[in-house]
Each structure stands twice: as C-alpha cells, then as structure tokens.
Amino acid sequence: MAQESSSCHYNETMQFFYNRSGQRHSLDKSLLTLVQVVGSIFCIFILVANCMVIAAVITNKRFHYPFYYLLANLAASDFLAGIAYVYLMFNTGDVSPTLTIREYFLRQGLLDISLSASLANLLVIALERYISVMNWKVHSNLTKRRVTLLIILVWSISVFMGTVPSMGWNCICNLDSCSQMAPIFSRSYLVFWSVSNMVIFVAMVAIYMRIYAYVKRKTTMLMSHTSSSISRKRTPIKLIKTVMVVLGAFLICWTPGLMVMLLDGVNCRTCDVKKLKSLMLLLAIANSVMNPCIYSYKDEEMWTTIKNLMRCIGNGTRRQRSTRANARPLNSDQDPGTSPPASDEMKTDDNQSLDS
Predict the structure, then answer these.
(1) Between 20 and 30 A from 35 (CA), which of 16, 91, 149, 325?
(2) Are 134 and 214 in contact (CB under 8 A)?
(3) At what angle do helices 277-298 and 235-265 cross, to 10 degrees?
C-alpha cells in the first residue's frame, strides 16, 4: 500500500481514484436526465443573460466607465461559469469514472477559473468603488488603459489558480494526500484555495464597511444643505448598492462550499462532505443565474438597455424572416404571369405614406 501511494498513476482513469475515495456515481437515469434538462435551461439563461449584459455595456455610451467595464468582466466570468456547468453536467454521474486525468483537470479547471475570475472581479470592483467614493464621485478616474490592465491581471490570476493542480499540485504521486471531493486534488491545495478565498471575502467586507462609515460621516456633514444637494451628493452610492447585493449573493452561495472544501482539506473524517457536493453545485449555478438579474433589477438604465437590445434582436429576426419569404422562389403551381396586381387598398396606403 505504501508503494502504491508513493508511485505516480498518470495512466490510470478516474475510476481508480474514485474507488480510493469511496465515491459512488451510479445515478438513476431519469434523475440524471432531469438534472441535465433543468441544468441546461439554467445554463442557457446564464449564457444569454450575461451576453446581454456585456452587449449593453458595449452599446450604451453611458456605461463606458470603469465600473461598468469591470461589471461586464464579471458577466464574462459568469458566462464562462455557464460553459463550465454545461461541460460538468454532461461529464458527471456514470461518466465521471471514465474520464481521463486530463479531462478531469479540464472539467474542474473551468469551474476554478470562473470562480477565481468572479472573486477577483468583485475585489477589483470594491477597490474601484472605494476610490470613487473617497473622491465623492460617481465614477473613478481610472483610465481605460488601467482598466484593461486590471482585466488582464484578473484573468491571468484566474487561469493560474485554475491550472495549478494540473501543473503539479495534485495527489497523483501521493495518494494518501488525496481529497474526498476531488479525488486527484491534494488536500493542501483545497486548504490553500478555501483560505485564500475567505481572506478575499474578509477584505471586501472590510472595504465596504469603510465605505459605509465614510458615507455616513459625509452625509451627516451635508445635513445643513438642501435636500436636492444631499440627493446629488448621494449619487456615488447608487452604484454601490448593485455591487453590494452581488457581493452578498456571492457570499451566500459560495461560503458554504468553501467551508466544506476546508473541512475536506483538513481531512475531517466525521464530515460527510461528499453528500454536500451536489448542493454546492446547485448554489454555484444559482449565483450565476442571480447576477444578471441583480444588474437589471438594481440598475434601471441597464434594464432599459437590455430591453432595447431584445427589441432590436426581435425586429431584426422578423425582418430576416420577411426577406427570406420575399426571396422564396414561386411554387410550380404558381404562374408568374397570373400573379394578382397590387390592390387598390395597398396603392392607397402607399400614396398616403408618400404624402405624409
């Protein structure tokens, strides 16, 4: 047994590692089908809704500010999460043990990258809000170049965090250090992952508490001004409400999962972490579903832009159908020479439109 634990097992399938962890993957086919159908509907919503958020930021010039660029980047991370969930749903259950080590790393890596990107984006947004509020402005003075560099930094860190296990921080050569939830991930990596994310959570909460204390003090100082002046001074706070709701949803959906990963990382034998795995995935999907809803609900301008985009898409689809119908060739039973002339009613409508 000691020799098996010290040797590497790169040529094994995931069945070997699942057997060691004691995980069972036999699911009822009807239940698996239901999960895939319902999950696919949610994933389609995640993909479409986040595409609309990104498109709204691109098309509306009122959103061409650092906060909204970062918000669009957060939507991009949720879009990636939707792709990761689709890949996971159709590579789970009885399929999981048949995966190769590389395929398993790809499956988990997509999830880890999307989560890291979401968390890093929320931290950067918190810092951007801190800068803007401390200057009592609606938007910070970050240039487009700096915002672009921040976005590149976010994705660089996220890709690194998601690919660390495949680059060597795993238990393929040390089976005794394997986790229960992720059979080829080292428990030490799960401890690092969960603790680092919790530290970022605490940092973001501290930033927003600092913002709240500053705003409360600033508002008290402005009480001698007129109500319209106070309303104008409160304008920078409106965007904070959106991101605080997003942060709250993220904490609710991901904190339980991080706690479970931490328990698995410290090798808690009395904790049945494997039973909580499905609940963690459900909460993760719910978070990606909630975010675009929060954007549109808390920001009227965003919702108006998204509705206009949907109208444009609907009108464009109808025009394409009309064009295809007009370009359709006549059936064999139709005689082009006997086609009816334009009716008097249509001629009248044409004349009225020209006169008008």
Answers:
(1) 16
(2) yes
(3) 180
Residues facing residue 86 across a β-bridge: none
3-state DSSP helix/strand/coil percent for the chain, to nearest 5? Answer: 80, 0, 20
CA 290 to chain centre: 9
CA distance 331 to 109: 54
- Read off the pTM: 0.79
First to last CA, the chain: 90
CA atoms within 13 A on the CB side of 44: 6
The Cα 74–Cα 122 span in angstroms is 7
Beta bridge partners of 170: 185
- Token look-up 């980047």 returns 73
Q: Residues 154, 120: contact at Cβ < 8 Å? A: yes
Q: What are the structure tokens assigned to 213, written together?
A: 């204390």
Q: Are 121 and 74 in contact (CB under 8 A)?
A: yes
- pLDDT band for position 18 (cuts 50, 70, 90): confident
Higher-scoring residue by pLDDT: 19, 234: 19
Q: What is the pLDDT of residue 28?
A: 62
Question: In this structure, what token pair is assigned to residue 191?
Answer: 């401890």
Give the position of tokens 């985009």. 309
Does 169 have pLDDT greater than 80? yes
**Number of alpha carbons in the 13 Å side-chain half-sphere of residue 238:** 14
- Give the separation between CA 107 and CA 84, rounded to whole angstroms: 7
Phi, psi for residue 178 in degrees, rounded to 5: -70, 145
Distance CA 352, CA 210 (A): 65
Q: Which residues contact 147 (CB under 8 A, 6 or more apart)?
A: 66, 69, 70
Question: On the CB side of 321, how many CA atoms lie within 13 Å of its CA?
Answer: 6
Asked if 76 and 295 touch (Cβ cutoff 8 Å), the reply is no
Residue 51 has pLDDT above 90, yes or no: yes
Count CB neighbours of 200 within 10 A: 16
